[in-house]
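Ticket 4471: requesting a sanity check on a complex prediction with A2R. Repro inputs:
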Amino acid sequence: MKALIIGAAGFVGEYLIHALQNVGYEVFATKLKHETLNIGEVSVLDLDITDFLQTKEVLTTVMPDVVFHLAAQSSVKLSWERPQLTANINIVGAINVLEAVRVASKNIRILLIGSSEEYGAIDYTQAVREDFIPVPKNIYALTKHAQEQLAEIYNKAYGLDVVMTRSFNHIGPKQAHQFVVADFCHQVALIEKGLQDPIIRVGNLAAYRDFTDVRDVVTAYITLVEKGECGEIYNVGSGVPIQIKTILDIILSISNKQIDVVVDPSKFRPIDIPYIYADVTKLKKLGWEPKYSIRNSIEEILSYERDR
Ligand code: A2R
Ligand code: GDD
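Returned structure tokens:
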């Protein structure tokens, strides 16, 4: 089977390449021109998804069996600061990918990565299911929901073989420092090395999120392209809510340094979902189970940041 990963130089991409190779896929990977992707046995192509002709060229040249569409402006915080950029990559880019697949072949299966952020700032007291009506409350979330609705239109109008996710937070070594666990571990590593005063700057510690190790996330994505139902949406998460403050406490308890916590208002968003976690019954019915515990992931991330 030939797999094409669009946006492979990001956090999830590298893990997905390894996971696909381990189960015997021939992997093609795209990256932006300025990015580097040093992974053996992979055909690497440059692609900016905001350019339709380039996107079509890649699809018709590679002619994959499956496409994993990971490329995005993936930061909620940045979407408040760069709304046009976020919409251009996440909406126009998604149209270009869908349209390029339609032109190339209807036999291509495509997995589109959406977000738990799509559900919006409702006060959830139960695990969110895929049949809850999303009400996006930030620009990133809106663009991901637009992508999902576009995919549903392509599925209904043209019979495109799309499977969609609403992915909850994912973590692991090598994640960019703009995301919470990598950010906290990076700061602690700097403090331990004496490169930062013993003060950790944090944002909204009250929020609850559902974290899954990136290695479990990529096995979920492979499960979905292999067993997911055409036109369906699947939550990808652990099913366990955890407060950001608890994550911070775990990280601080692993460190041997005395560290003060300072709340930094610049790290807050105009709107932040207070509490959300996934109902993953639908995904688990396909045979997927997460293997990594949150503590295990945090220990590995901190260890990675210490070694950098
Ligand atoms: O923004 P950069 O320079 O980090 O590049 C990102 C890349 N990307 C693009 N690729 C093609 N054409 C574009 N116009 C374009 N703009 C950005 O997509 C990056 O290398 C990749 C996305 O990777 P990450 O930001 O690291 O996201 P991650 O954690 O791998 O998440 C994968 C998917 C995304 O759709 C997220 O929105 C979702 O899972 O949570
Ligand atoms: N980044 C960051 N830094 N977040 C903080 C901090 C901090 O210092 N302190 C508290 N938080 C809170 C945020 O306010 C938010 O409630 C939570 O930690 C998670 O923030 P991020 O790690 O930045 O992730 P995100 O939830 O905004 O977005 C990620 O998960 C989405 C799925 O839920 C990204 O990976 C998205 O691409 C993905 O769709």
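Notes from triage: The chain has ten helices and 13 strands. Leaving this open until the requester confirms.
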